[in-house]
Specification:
It catalyses: L-glutamyl-tRNA(Gln) + L-glutamine + ATP + H2O = L-glutaminyl-tRNA(Gln) + L-glutamate + ADP + phosphate + H(+); L-aspartyl-tRNA(Asn) + L-glutamine + ATP + H2O = L-asparaginyl-tRNA(Asn) + L-glutamate + ADP + phosphate + 2 H(+). This is Aspartyl/glutamyl-tRNA(Asn/Gln) amidotransferase subunit C. Keywords: ATP-binding, Ligase, Nucleotide-binding, Protein biosynthesis. This protein has 96 residues and is mainly α. It has a domain of 38 residues. Helix content is 40%, strand content 0%.
Length: 96
């Protein structure tokens, strides 16, 4: 793939970014390096190599949901600035 000014302009428009001439040259250089790296990877022989779909063989390893130490209602409301004995009281945020 050829990295030229037209490609940089197209990428600039697609990304809605504006670059000055120095930035364009830097981006052109970086893109050429990236494409060169990918081209270098194309030289590897991957015959017989299975694609990597997951980093490990484990799937959805989750712990059991076991209830632990729970607060009583009184303990939960103890430090609440506003409550009515059963519920926390908070300022109204939804207007009708």
């Amino acid at each position: 793939m050829q990295v030229d000014d037209a490609l940089i302009e197209k990428l600039s428009k697609l990304s809605l970014l504006q670059f000055n001439e120095a930035e364009k040259e830097e981006i052109k250089s970086d893109l050429q390096k990236m494409i060169g790296f990918v081209d270098k990877l194309q030289e590897l022989d991957t015959t017989g190599i299975e694609p990597l779909l997951h980093m490990s063989e484990e799937v959805n390893v989750l712990r059991d949901d076991i209830p632990g130490n729970m607060l009583t209602r009184e303990e939960a409301l103890k430090n609440a600035p506003h409550h009515d004995g059963q519920y926390f009281k908070v300022p109204k945020v939804i207007k009708k």
